[in-house]
Amino acid sequence: MPRSVNHVASRAKRKNILKLTKGNFGARKNVWTVAKNTWEKGLTYAFRDRRNKKRNFRALWIQRINAAARLEGLSYSQLIGTLHKAGIEMNRKVLADLAMNHPEAFKAIVEKAKNA
Questions:
Q1: Where are the domains of the chain?
Q2: Which fold has domain 7-115?
Q3: In whole angstroms, what is the distance from residue 80 CA to residue 16 CA?
Q4: Long-range pairs, 13-20, Cβ under 8 A, ≥24
Q5: Alpha-carbon distance 77 to 100, whole Å?
């Protein structure tokens, strides 16, 4: 008796991956082995870049805080040091948002940290 192969499932799997690679250039979208390799490599990039995104945003927040702090006469590191000494627990995301969108609130926080 010949070996039974589930062609329905394997064809569905191939069809699904080819659907996921839609929009790629050339053979990457319609040749099974190339499309599969492209899709797998894309998952690797997605995993890596979810972590890089956190890195990039933290760097952006620090640049924004530094720019706003220098308008108040402090460097970034001096500002963070005075905030810690004053016991003001704010993360960089919130500080950067205040620096960009609410400069008067950021200025008040800096003054409170300086005076403490």
A1: 7-115
A2: c-terminal domain of poly(a) binding protein (1.10.1900)
A3: 50
A4: none
A5: 18
